[in-house]
Specification:
Layout lengths: L1 E6 L8 H12 L3 E6 L5 H8 L3 E5 L5 H18 L4 E5 L1 H5 L3 H5 L3 E3 L4 H13 L9 E2 L22 H7 L8 E4 L2 E2 L10 H8 L8 E2 L2 H14 L5 E4 L10 H13 L4 E4 L7 H10 L1 E5 L7 H7 L6 H13 L3 E8 L6 H14 L3 E6 L7 H8 L24 H19 L5 H7 L5 H20 L8 H18 L3 H10 L16
Parallel strand pairs: 1-2, 1-3, 3-4, 4-5, 7-10, 10-11, 11-12, 12-13, 13-14
Antiparallel strand pairs: 5-6, 8-9
The structure holds cobalamin and iron/sulfur cluster.
Iron/sulfur cluster binds next to loops.
Length: 512
């Protein structure tokens, strides 16, 4: 059977869930292909690959791109008179099962799909329907039995070949992503994890699961052998260190001996004390993503439920510096009920913590998260807001005037640069955000972002040469311009979804 996996954009980090599913399908003896909608025309791939199954993997802000692609799939089935099974999984299908009806899909997968895809494929072979498969909902049977994959060690290594076949240029970027665990126990109000935990908690279901160090290191060794050049490892777990435990001790002892490559991981500031920073640095950790999110204790700990007092954050950023770990730290502007002055305070707080790689974004509300519901209850966000149009755009919250929204956008573009400049420059930032130079600031943001990623966060992942840097900056600019661009630009991208070719990659995420 031929299974076509469909993702929206090729990012600098691989779509690990899709690669896992592709590996499972290949292990069952099936043929798989991956298409990125920002790189290749789906109709071209359909004609060439002639899939029996089309498997969409979707994040909520990209739903509109998939609706467009789905039109091309439906047109193909009509043209060929062929029955193609259309499936969807990933976070959007998990939190918005209404897509089943909206797309009129054969089935959706909610949560872990590793077993679900096997059952689905077997049922297709047997000519049977998809009812009564754990984590799978159909229009006929929307309620489903829940399951989480308990033992991650039974999963095959990710199918990276399918990724580099779809995005060959990304193999030269020597960055390779791995997951060591699934699940996150925290309850940040802007994130979907609390929704996931509420949905899947229950008798016998373990929400936090980790692979053995053996299983992980074996996969890394295999990737070093088969997907050279590997220069930098990116652990993509939501939180790499939830607690200091035996797993971390074993990893910290074996990883440098057996792998010895620099790595990056995500961690909460509350998890990085001096001891953990020392262990990570000793193991080869060169950079961590340690979000700040907001500049006051009230916003961080009451509104966002981050549970991170200021003193603790100062200590953890100091610990990172002491151990030579670059801290990438994101902060969000534009929270429900805040003002432009709060956004400046967030900038100043981030600057006080002195992260080596500061980044800033505008809060992007998603239905079904606690923070979005709170904003709607307080009439700070319309109930019918367009969630497809909130990523890298001006805030959709009503607690900012139109003029303030523009200033906030400019502040977000310039904040990373000004975090790296001396404090006496801060008043200049306040002047610059008033000038109507957003397009110039977007370019500045892209260059700073490409510099931080290439030189500070993933040093050495890409060989240092001016051409590679220029390419990364160009990609960053085109991605930011697309994702934060005008409605007209977005519509143009949508029109192109069916026509894009491999030679015209369109907007790409920065690859460095
Ligand atoms: C790495 C990552 C990214 C990477 C890129 C991811 C990529 N290359 O695909 C980057 C940094 C680019 C990114 C960006 C964003 N991200 Co992100 N990201 C993640 C993260 C941390 C890990 C993804 C992952 O590898 N998961 C592990 C794999 C195993 O799980 P999975 O992908 O879900 O796949 C499994 C199942 O879903 C299922 N499945 C998936 N597809 C399919 C298809 C079929 C047919 C079937 C049967 C099953 C199935 O089976 C898989 C194996 O079990 C997740 C959090 C998380 N824990 O998942 C957030 C997450 C996906 N991101 C999220 C968000 C909100 C964003 C941003 C909008 C952030 C922002 N506001 O700035 C942007 C969106 C950019 C854009 N325009 O697309 C949300 C998505 C919520 C939603 N409703 O869609 C998540 C869930 C975080 C959260 N908890 O809130 N992200
Ligand atoms: S720690 Fe990160 S992944 Fe976990 S709930 Fe908070 S934002 Fe989500």
């Amino acid at each position: 059977m031929r299974i076509l996996f469909v993702n929206s954009h090729a990012f600098y980090s691989e779509p690990l869930g899709t690669l896992q599913l592709s590996a499972v399908c290949k292990e069952m003896g099936h043929d798989t292909r991956l298409v990125f909608l920002n790189r290749q025309a789906i109709s071209e791939v359909l004609d060439e690959f002639e899939p029996d199954v089309v498997a969409y993997s979707v994040m909520t802000p990209n739903e509109h791109i998939f609706l467009k692609a789905d039109e091309a799939v439906k047109a193909y089935t009509k043209r060929r008179g062929k029955n193609v099974v259309r499936l969807m999984g990933g976070p959007h299908a998990t939190y918005f099962p209404e897509v089943l009806e909206k797309f009129n899909l054969d089935a959706i997968c909610l949560g872990d799909g590793d077993n679900a895809i096997q059952h689905i494929v077997r049922r297709i072979e047997q000519g049977k329907g998809f009812n009564d498969i754990p984590n799978v909902a159909t229009l006929e049977q929307p309620d489903f039995q829940k399951e989480v994959i308990d033992d991650l060690n039974i999963l095959p290594p990710l199918d990276r070949k399918v990724f580099y076949d779809a995005a060959p240029d990304l193999q030269n970027v020597g960055l390779r992503g791995f997951l060591t665990q699934r699940g996150c126990p925290y309850k940040c109000t802007y994130c979907f994890n609390h929704a996931f935990n509420t949905m899947f908690k229950g008798e016998g279901r373990k929400l936090i699961r980790r692979r053995s160090v053996d299983h992980l290191l074996d996969e890394i060794k295999m990737v070093q052998r088969d997907f050279a050049p590997v220069r930098f490892i990116r652990f993509a777990d939501d939180v790499f260190v939830i607690r200091k435990d035996e797993w971390l001790e074993e990893f910290a002892e074996r990883y440098p001996r057996e792998i010895g490559l620099p790595f990056y991981c995500l961690i909460r500031s509350s998890g990085l004390d001096d001891e953990v920073a020392g262990m990570l640095a000793g193991a080869g950790c060169k950079s961590v993503s340690m979000s700040i999110e907001a500049g006051t204790d009230h916003l961080r700990n009451v509104v966002l439920k981050r549970n991170m007092p200021e003193e603790l954050m100062i200590e953890s950023f100091d610990a990172a510096r002491r151990h030579g770990i670059v801290a990438q730290a994101n902060s969000m502007m534009g929270l429900p009920g805040t003002s432009l002055e709060d956004d400046f305070q967030t900038f100043l707080f981030a600057k006080k913590l002195r992260p080596a790689a500061p980044t800033f974004s505008i809060f992007c509300p998603f239905p079904k998260t606690a923070l979005t519901e709170m904003a709607q209850e307080k009439n700070l966000l319309p109930h019918n807001f367009d969630y497809n149009n909130t990523y890298r755009t001006a805030t959709v919250l009503t607690n900012y005037s139109e003029a303030e929204k523009k200033e906030q956008l400019r502040l977000t573009c310039l904040a990373a640069l000004f975090c790296l400049l001396p404090n006496f420059m801060n008043p200049v930032l306040r002047v610059l955000v008033k000038l109507p130079l957003t397009s110039v600031y977007v370019v500045i943001e892209a260059i700073v972002e490409a510099y931080l990623r290439g030189i500070r966060i993933f040093p050495g992942a890409q060989p240092l040469n001016p051409l590679a840097f220029a390419n990364a900056a160009r990609n960053a600019i085109s991605y930011i311009l697309f994702s934060g661009g005008t409605q007209a630009k977005k519509e143009k991208f949508m029109d192109d979804v069916g026509q894009r070719t491999a030679d015209d990659p369109g907007s790409q995420f920065p690859v460095v």
